[in-house]
Amino acid sequence: MIQTIDHVALLPAYLAAATAVLALVTDLALARRQVTVAVTATGAAATAVAAWVVGTGPVRETFCLPAAPDACSYVADQTSALMAVLFALLTLGVLGLSTGALRSLPTGEYCFLLAASMTGGVALAYSRDLITLIVALETLTLPLYALVGLKRRSLASAQGAVTLFVVSVVATSVTLLGAALLYASTGVVHLNQLAAALTGGVPAELQTLATVSVVLILAGLAFKVAAVPFHAWAPAAYDGAPVPVAAYLSTASKLGGVVAVLYVVVLGLRPWLDVIGWVLAALAIATMTVGNLVALRQRRVVRLLAWSSVAQAGYILAPLGVFAVASGRTDEALTLAVTATIAYAIFYVVIELAAFGSVAAMRGGDADGGEIEAYRGAARRAPLVGAAFTLALIGLAGLPPGLAGMFAKVAVIRALLGGGAGWLALIVAINAVIGLVYYLRVAALLYSTPPEPEPAPAAVPVPAPAPAPAPESTRVTAPVGGPAAAAAAEQEPRPGPAAGLAVPAEEPEGPPGSSAVPWAVAAALAGATLVAIVIGFAPQLVLDLATLAVP
Amino acid sequence: MSAGQMLLVATLAVPALGAAVVALLPRRIEQGARVTGTVAAALAFLASALLYLGRDWSPMIALGTPVQPWYQLQLDWVPWLNLQFHLGVDGISYPLVVLTTLLTFLCCLFTIYRVPEGGRGRSLVALLLVTEVGIVGTFLAFDLVLFFIFFEVVLLPMFAIIAFWGGERRRHAARKFAFYTLFGSVLLLVGVFVVVGSAGTADIVALTAGEALTRPIQLTAFTLFAVAFAVKSPLWPLHTWLPDAHTEAPTVGSVILAGVLLKMGTYGLIRIGVGVTPEGIAWAAPVLGVLAVAAIIIGALVCLAQTELKRLIAYSSVGHMGFVLLGIATLSVAGLQAALIGNIAHGIITGLLFFLAGAIKDRAHTGELARLGGLRENAPVLAGLLGFGAIASLGLPGLAGFWGEIFAVVAAFQRGDTLWVVLGVAAAVGAALTAAYFLRLLRRVTHGPAALQLTAPGLTRPELVAWSPLVLLALALGLLPALVLGMAYDPVTALAGVVP
């Protein structure tokens, strides 16, 4: 029989795919950077609008099983709409950030790959069966290997791409294996049918197989979120990639993983929350703790942001850890937890985009993130970008004035305590304290005075007893960033009696002023920062959206 | 919106706007920005002072609500988090609010005249104003979640003040301050949502009146609150951030830190610890009492061994806050009154002492007691003021410091049990030790041979303007404790009534 296909439901995915093709064709035909970027941006915006419009209408389902009309592969409901809009807007934002880097990257390929990845994200948002979900997720990820490796003559870039590729392929095959085994034990792939099958009970001899397959699926998806222990690719890939691609990896790609986990857990594995609750809780705890602890020791900005994004993935998953306790598996607690996860993800992608946008704006062109030390005093040279970066870092730390980040953490704590998982709330809270250490280190560095030239030991008389790092000071600061970073932080020069004579420091290899920031980068950064400020003061907007979007 | 509600909003909005304006003024306007910020601080002080005039003068009627704010403003902010923008003021919070706006105003005024090394004066003024928003907001919040948010607002501006304008080891001190405080406030957050999750509301007025919380919930929540407030107050043994932060902070930072920031902890214990989790605090009261007395004794002993002026004053705060916490721990009307007036007195006197210590260190370029001898001969006015501050701080009758200490000891005796009598005696011994170290300080600094010449022995006009309100208040509060106790009597009695 011939299926009727609801093309309206598919419109956002069509538009996303058309954007990719158009980007390539435009580049071939015109070979003008601005035009290609503009076409891609228009396509992304059109995708977002279409997803929004379709989402405000009735729920549309298509590609349904003839035998079971409620089992559909492609569902356009409010959840799908929100996620699709997010993917499209994130792509738009990343595209804006890319205009600086595109001066030395092949524009057509870049825009095509980005739009192709967006297509995967949009399709993922609408997918409701395991196969479509995995294919969509792979469509989202596949262009990223190329994007990470797009920098010419860069070893780090190639290393990052290969790492990402190898780990990702393994993860995908693990997920596929899990899906296949689950199909073997239940006979279904649609998520709602899966839930029904699991409620009905798996035959006893297949019980183990089903459990293993569920764990395999989650493990594979954890890779996309960069959750510990499937996180090791992230720092290398982020640091090797052009900064805008790193921004995409840490926002849209991570969101893809979160959406996949949410759909599988909430729609498919709902009856088995008691089994997977502990897996999710352990995953969340390990992810945030390891991410935060390793971030303490980073010397490079993008690596620090990469590890911080690992930790943030832990916070995103944390509300789902509430399923580990019985009181967290009630409908009410589940709604709270899923709302908190979606809300946290939204808050997070906005702030993270602003953070990477600030790095892109500060470094300019196609430069990589560079050493943290190179950012010393950067906010004094470029006050606006510096303020945006500071706000983003503080938002990631979850403190006022980064209200968006604070409300995100508050929502997570609220959901965990609402579900009766106080211990998990405490772990999240303690992790927030660890996180402050490195966010604050970078934020304070942005406003430090640039270092004075090292005085030659004999030539310059030491004006005052130098602030010798007392034993206690090293004791406390040592864990902050390793001995070297601690020493660097402690030795911030003071304008002593001789300061008037000192020549201003030579600018370290580092960010130029804000003058060179392309307008599109500035606009994307300003947009992300503005959104972060607005949702910081009106978090109910995000929470309402998240409540609507609970699958 | 009534006039009272507008004043409530103005007390918060004026400094916030002031900070924004100062931050947005063009970079070349330096002095003008500082003056603008100071004007904002003055207007905030005015608004907070006016709160008293319009209050409802009718005597409090026992309607079953132990908290009866003079005015309140209640708006929905984030329903999903049970967060309402709920402000109010009553006799417990009013003195603290006015103290905060006054001290911030004086600090901004002082910054017009003198900017500590490390950064621009206008940035310092802006940060002081933001800190003020956080502190005043904490005192005005009648919603648990809102209380937490304002509690957090203070953290980063104060970190920046210490980290950029502080002394030699400022980075270390600032970091220590930030991590201790954040550690406390994340526990506060968990505690808040333990309460909210169980009661379904974050309204402090409703929570104080009702019996929505079961005993186990109260014990859990109070344990979390207690650690949070103990870090902030600070209560021994969680006090170690305080000496570093106070010593390294610039003068205005120390004044705000000691003067009002610590009071967020003790105020939280009274408003939330006693009000929202009365069973919890009753259960933990003996522990709190013992720790408070330990703070008094240990603080005094450490002070006796201090050789640096600013550090000595910083450590003296540990002891003084010990008296405040002892008063709270007794959970009696007299004890809570002692805590309130002790808070205010400590804010005024220690604020003055930090101003003086900063002035002396600026002029002498050292804070070492051994090198400061003979101040009486070199700078008689400074020496006289230091003597006044020290005597007020050690609790001489007739000055502000007296009432908090004596009431706390009396309240402990009134409890009657052996434990509390012992604690009362120990606290009294601690008061004597306090006298000992302040007299030692005076003997070292003001008396003795004139060790060094000061650059400018007299007082400048800005110093006179900034300090005289504090001197007058220390005297006024000593002679007329009813200034604070009178308006606090009804709300404190009602609050003490909810404790089982």
Which descriptors apply to this entry?
heterodimer; A: 551 residues; mainly alpha; B: 500 residues
Low-confidence stretches of chain A: 454-515
Report the biggest beta sheet of chain A as strand number plus sense, adding barrel if it closes: 2 strands, antiparallel
Q: Which blocks of ≥5 consecutive residues of chain B have pLDDT under 50? A: none
What structural category characterises the helix and strand content of chain A? mainly alpha
* Helix count, DSSP H or I runs of 4 or more residues of chain B: 21
H/E series of chain B:
HHEEHHHHHHHHHHHHHHHHHHH
- The share of residues in helices of chain B is over 70%
Quaternary structure: heterodimer
- Sheet with most strands: strand arrangement of chain B: 1-2
Quick one: biggest sheet of chain B? 2 strands, antiparallel
Alpha-carbon Rg of chain B, integer: 21 Å
Care to give the gist of this entry?
The complex is a heterodimer of chains A (551) and B (500). With 551 residues, chain A is mainly alpha-helical. Chain A has helices spanning 7-30, 33-56, 78-101, 107-126, 130-148, 155-186, 191-200, 207-225, 233-240, 243-268, 273-295, 301-317, 331-363, 378-381, 383-397, 403-418, 422-446, 471-490, 519-537, 539-548, and strands at 60-64, 72-76.
Word description of this protein:
The complex is a heterodimer of chains A (551) and B (500). By secondary structure, chain A is mainly alpha-helical. Chain A has one domain. In chain A, 70% of the residues lie in helices and 2% in strands. Chain A has helices at residues 7-30, 33-56, 78-101, 107-126, 130-148, 155-186, 191-200, 207-225, 233-240, 243-268, 273-295, 301-317, 331-363, 378-381, 383-397, 403-418, 422-446, 471-490, 519-537, 539-548, and strands at 60-64, 72-76. In chain A, helix 3 packs antiparallel against helix 19 and helix 13 packs across helix 20 (539-548). Chain A is globular and about 70 Å long. Chain A starts with 6 loop residues before the first helix and ends with a helix. Mean pLDDT of chain A is 84; it is low at 454-515. By secondary structure, chain B is mainly α. Chain B contains 21 helices and 2 strands. Chain B has helices spanning 3-24, 31-50, 94-113, 121-140, 144-153, 155-165, 170-199, 204-209, 215-232, 241-248, 251-261, 263-274, 278-304, 309-330, 333-364, 375-378, 380-394, 401-415, 418-445, 461-479, 482-497; strands spanning 71-78, 83-89. A two-stranded antiparallel sheet of chain B has the order 1-2. The radius of gyration of chain B is 21 Å and the shape is globular. Chain B starts with a helix and ends with a helix.
